[in-house]
Amino acid sequence: KGPDPDVVAIAERLATVKHKILVLSGKGGVGKSTFSAQLSFALAEMEHQVGLLDIDICGPSIPKMLGLEGQDIHQSNLGWSPVYVESNLGVMSIGFMLPDPDDAVIWRGPRKNGLIKQFLKDVDWGEIDYLVVDAPPGTSDEHISIVQYLQATGIDGAIIVTTPQQVSLIDVRKEINFCKKVGVPVLGVVENMSGLRQPLSDLRFVKSGEPGETDATEWALNIIREKAPELLSVVTCSEVFDSSKGGAEKMCIEMGVPFLGKVPMDPQLCKAAEEGRSCFADQKCSASAPALRSIVKKV
Ligand code: ADP
Q1: d(CA 240, CA 236)
Q2: N or C: which end of the chain has fewer CB within 10 A?
Q3: What domains sit in the chain, N to C, each tagged with a CATH number?
Q4: ipTM beyond 0.90?
Q5: Quick one: average pLDDT of 247-256?
Q6: What is the C-alpha to C-alpha distance for residues 96 and 285, in angstroms, rounded to an integer?
Q7: Structural contact between residues 187 and 157, judged by C-beta atoms closer than 8 angstroms
Q8: Are strands 83-86 and 89-93 parallel, antiparallel or unpaired?
Q9: What is the torsion angle, in degrees rounded to the nearest 10, for the CA atoms of residue 64, residue 65, residue 68 and residue 72?
């Protein structure tokens, strides 16, 4: 039996892509698409040529997160053309093909696999440095086929996104074991929504109302600012989810995979995602952007 013609076609198509990164999560709603979108923005801002492929077929949120809602894909004799945010950031998603964004895609495995295969085979990315693949959550049949197809041309590895609580981490362990089993290197784990960190300017001080009386919160913060500025992030950060068992970092040590870092919950990041913007473009995402930037540097 000769080589699978689909695998050969995909390998040929993706020969112009230098690095392929798969973004995975054990569960939905942990911020995988947000991370994929911001990773792509960050790589593009570093002047790389970037492609973002959204194969989360049941919940394609990438068009919205990149500010591309309502856009169409075009076909040329070279294949399907991605939709471009910038000349060096192209995006492909099933979301572009749905007539109505409210349409639920309820497809069975083989049809989903068919579309994923077609995406990998027919999208004309051109010469690019990075292809970021936003995969569906969990470990399903689709994942096995994605990995098989990507492995034919070499895949750099997977980044796994999780939240700090045990229910999410249990699924991440499964995800890591899946990667080990199918031979995809784990580039690392990102702990998202890790505490709620508020910049000091956002803190509402309790004013006593009495003129001349020192406001207690401001007074305490001033002392910390002066004597131990490194503690500011601690006093302005509250844990949202229970991470008393050590969170993702401890799990990474146990499982022998790299821990890439924590991204706090940041209302401004959520807003940037809703509005399809990069969180690095201005100073608004002061709680999450520095964390994301340091993670991107490790990738
Ligand atoms: P997934 O792809 O894992 O299903 P999403 O990326 O769609 O998750 O994120 C779910 C929601 O949470 C989105 O509204 C997103 O903007 C928001 N979100 C993700 N990460 C953060 C964060 N660190 N702070 C605030 N909101 C976030």
Answers
A1: 13
A2: N
A3: 5-197+239-298 (3.40.50.300), 200-235 (no CATH)
A4: yes
A5: 93
A6: 28
A7: yes
A8: antiparallel
A9: -70
31 annotated to bind ligand: yes
Ligand 1: centre distance to CA 214 (Å): 39
In this structure, how many other beta carbons lie within 10 angstroms of the beta carbon of residue 284? 16
251, containing H or E segment: helix 247-255
The finding on whether 289 has its CB within 6 A of some atom of ligand 1 is no
Average pLDDT estimate for 96-124: 80
Higher pLDDT, 52 or 115: 52
Ligand 1 atom closest to residue 36's alpha carbon, by position in its atom list? 6
Q: Determine if ligand 1 sits within 6 Å of the CB of residue 195.
A: no
The answer on pLDDT for 276 being more than 70 is yes
**Residue nearest atom 4 of ligand 1, based on CA coordinates:** 29
Please work out whether the CB of residue 38 comes within 6 Å of at least one atom of ligand 1: no
Q: Is the CB of 243 under 6 A from ligand 1?
A: no
pLDDT of residue 126: 96
Which pLDDT score is estimated for 29? 92
Output the six-digit token pair for 218: 């401001």
Residue 272 in contact with ligand 1 by CB distance below 6 A:
no
- Ligand 1 within 6 A of 61 CB? yes
The amino acid present at 60, given as its one-letter code, is: P
CA of 271 to the centre of ligand 1 (A): 10
